[in-house]
Amino acid sequence: MKYLFAGGVSAIKLKSLIALSSIRSDSIISGLESHLIVGHRIEAASALASVPPANLARAVDKLELIATEVEKIKDDDWGKRK
Asked: What is the domain-level CATH number for residue 25?
């Protein structure tokens, strides 16, 4: 299941996911913001951030994996509360 959509991620959520990742490049982070918060396509966001589209797509994939794990934890915690 996909959890991260172009333009569908809050700044707080993106910041938290980045903190859980190994992503530290300001350019990649800028591209992630353009794509995931603003809603630009990968190609446009990478051009705005001056990074190769493949690198930005790889960063999105990394964050998607982290978001998936976070959702698993949330589901597990929710199940224990019922």
From this structure: 1.10.10.2690
